[in-house]
Amino acid sequence: MEEKPRLARLTAIITQLQSKKIVTANYLAEKHGVSTRTIYRDIRTLEQSGIPIITEEGKGYSIMEGYHLPPVLFSEEEANALITIEQLVLKNKDESLVKNVSSAIDKIKSILKYSQKGNADLLSERVYFGGNNKEEKTSDNLMELQSAIIHFQLLEISYLSSQNQVTKRTIEPFAIYSTNGNFLLVAYCRLRNDFRVFRIDYIQSIIALQDKFTPHNLTIKEFFEQYIKDKN
């Protein structure tokens, strides 16, 4: 990877520190095509400029909680990429995803320079993605399921099977993936005592239960390796 000019690299490091809970020197070095020694110097420079960077030995760097830096500036290419993502998401079938992404991008647009806002409006009218032409939204559950995954929240769902039968399941949400335009939920099903894959648009209702579940000692990669093995 080509090394960036130092000022651009320092700005990018600040953005990366803001966007992640913790960032390692190795990650930053690989990201910017420099040595870890260079990253150490960059971190010292940022600290000397007054940015409260916390160093966690053996883990990495983070910015002190509650500290907010001024809004970042977007290049024209970055602004264009955001508009493209927005138009792509608008075609998605999940209402909760569309609503939240649109809201987030509106906030990002609000800090664009005046000239960039005009370009963004023009590009919004000139970028089009086919598929889901009726703009139909077949689910509104994605955001709630994402929240349940990160908070280890036990859920009770009513699920419409491919045989057109509705069953109630108590599930431990594990992961979400997308294929062929559909979102699918991987969850441990207490009815079947095993992991199952549920199409999110077939989930008719969700009740968040008071109980939490113990996180599964499994990665999404390990799940799919086992899933593929079982299918074969």
TrEMBL record:
Question: What SUPFAM superfamilies is this protein classified in?
Answer: Winged helix' DNA-binding domain
Q: Name one GO molecular function term.
A: DNA-binding transcription factor activity
Q: Which UniProt keywords apply?
A: Transcription, Transcription regulation
Which Pfam family, giving just one, matches this sequence? HTH_11
Domain HTH deoR-type positions:
6-61
Which PANTHER family is this protein grouped with? PROTEIN PAFC, PTHR34580
Q: What is this protein called?
A: YafY family transcriptional regulator
Q: What is the lineage of its organism?
A: Bacteria, Pseudomonadati, Bacteroidota, Cytophagia, Cytophagales
